[in-house]
């Protein structure tokens, strides 16, 4: 049980005093970058899906 208490105390000390936390403005910028990149990725996947869907419809109609 003593080992668990020591582990928790050392973990708390590390989180509180030794970790470098990002500024809130940096986190906002990173979040916006992820949002924009995810949206662009989703639109590209949607476009590829539409092209393949149209191509397969044409292929099955012709043959």
UniProtKB/TrEMBL annotation:
What InterPro entries does the record point to?
SecE_bac (IPR005807), SecE_sf (IPR038379), Translocase_SecE/Sec61-g (IPR001901)
Q: Where in the cell is it found?
A: Cell membrane; Membrane
One GO biological process from the UniProt record? protein secretion
Q: Which GO terms describe its cellular component?
A: plasma membrane
Which organism was this protein described from?
Chryseolinea serpens
Q: Name one GO molecular function term.
A: protein transmembrane transporter activity
Which stretches are annotated as coiled coil?
Answer: none
The molecule here is called: Protein translocase subunit SecE
């Amino acid at each position: 049980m003593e080992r668990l208490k020591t582990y928790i105390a050392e973990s708390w000390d590390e989180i509180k005093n030794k970790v470098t936390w990002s500024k809130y403005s940096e986190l906002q910028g990173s979040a916006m970058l992820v949002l924009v990149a995810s949206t662009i990725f989703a639109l590209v996947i949607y476009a590829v899906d539409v092209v393949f869907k149209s191509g397969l419809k044409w292929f099955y109609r012709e043959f």
